[in-house]
């Protein structure tokens, strides 16, 4: 096998030193193809880990099933990772008198923060930029965990995909090789409306992942659980409360069946915020569930931004207050809602099996699907489970006074069910006026988009150009982010 053939087989066009392929070719000739390729990949991996520039990305999220129940470790939730990603390009620079970490977000005004390490206790001082609790918490937590003994100077550039924020008053900027495109905003970052797809969790996760990877000179697979634990702690610290954690879990692990960790894991550190305690907690195996999952082939998640507004903490507060005041009614409703959620998970699993057993018949059933005549019993189960989830969330709305599925969203979701190929939908996460999530037959998406464009019932809906993402945090090619300056 020639050097050129090795380069082509492994897509080595971006390697600066073409001698890798020459050396690999020799190894392959002497040791055999498999041994030679394994050796080469180990060399490339080592080279990447020692590189002065690395890039990472982490996805957004949508909680399809498990709203409110996800707060309780007794229940599972179905969390879909989304194709809108938060990106971080980290570069090692010449070390100054004081070790520091600089973070820039060039897509927004006032997106600049500089942190210096103050003393041997690894305390952090912000010396430039407005306060950003999520960025600050990620930096401070990682330094306390790593305890870096050598001086450092890391520069991180953050990019966020278009799905996270409103797209008004923006202009698109492409990277030099055309691999990445981001929208640049005129307003400061704090004044740009968000879509509720997990931007803060993605931000904390990608900063944590990039810093831990370079400090430890490790690949993501080697330290993914530690990245998760650190990101959860940082995110909770920034929010000043221990949340369910599903958004961070999706950012790290991708689409998952999720059952949360016990809040006491993080509370234990907050009560004793010492480095030794942080390291102990992060290094321990947490008792939580994250099993990979995916939507069946031919079924697509369609997200609609409603451009409304919901304050999740207030919604959650109302539900928890009612739950404490009426434990018997709440327990019964939670059990019924959980049963509907698990029916959804089971229906999706059965559709996967149906596809594997007879792909042709499966796709024929999908293509023939309509709300009047459902061909597959598994499709019927999926439709029924989405309907039941909505009914129980509506009951929760009425009992708690929290706008989980408010009347305007009920009218909209009912209208969505009349669309061609719509299997059903929910108000994702904690509910409210932010968004809707639909499961639809993929081949009908264009028809749905065209039909809703001229239908006044959908005048407040902006369909987001997103899809389900299987993978969580990933290492990216730094070359894809070059020449992105405004």
TrEMBL record:
Coiled coil region boundaries: 334-368
Annotated GO CC locations: peroxisome
GO MF: ATP binding; GTP binding; GTPase activity; phosphomevalonate kinase activity
The protein's Enzyme Commission number: 2.7.4.2
Domain GHMP kinase N-terminal per the UniProt entry, residue ranges: 194-254
SUPFAM superfamilies reported for this sequence: Ribosomal protein S5 domain 2-like
GO biological-process terms attached to the record: ergosterol biosynthetic process; farnesyl diphosphate biosynthetic process, mevalonate pathway; isopentenyl diphosphate biosynthetic process, mevalonate pathway
Enzyme class: transferase
Pfam family, one: Arf
InterPro entries, A to Z: Erg8, GHMP_kinase_N_dom, P-loop_NTPase, Phosphomevalonate_kinase, Ribosomal_Su5_D2-typ_SF, Ribsml_uS5_D2-typ_fold_subgr, Small_GTPase_ARF/SAR
Alphabetized UniProt keyword annotations: ATP-binding, Coiled coil, GTP-binding, Kinase, Lipid biosynthesis, Lipid metabolism, Nucleotide-binding, Steroid biosynthesis, Steroid metabolism, Transferase
Biochemical pathway: Isoprenoid biosynthesis; isopentenyl diphosphate biosynthesis via mevalonate pathway; isopentenyl diphosphate from (R)-mevalonate: step 2/3
Recorded catalytic activity of this chain's protein: (R)-5-phosphomevalonate + ATP = (R)-5-diphosphomevalonate + ADP
Family designation: Belongs to the GHMP kinase family. Mevalonate kinase subfamily.
PANTHER family: PHOSPHOMEVALONATE KINASE (PTHR31814:SF2), PTHR31814
Stated name of the protein: Phosphomevalonate kinase
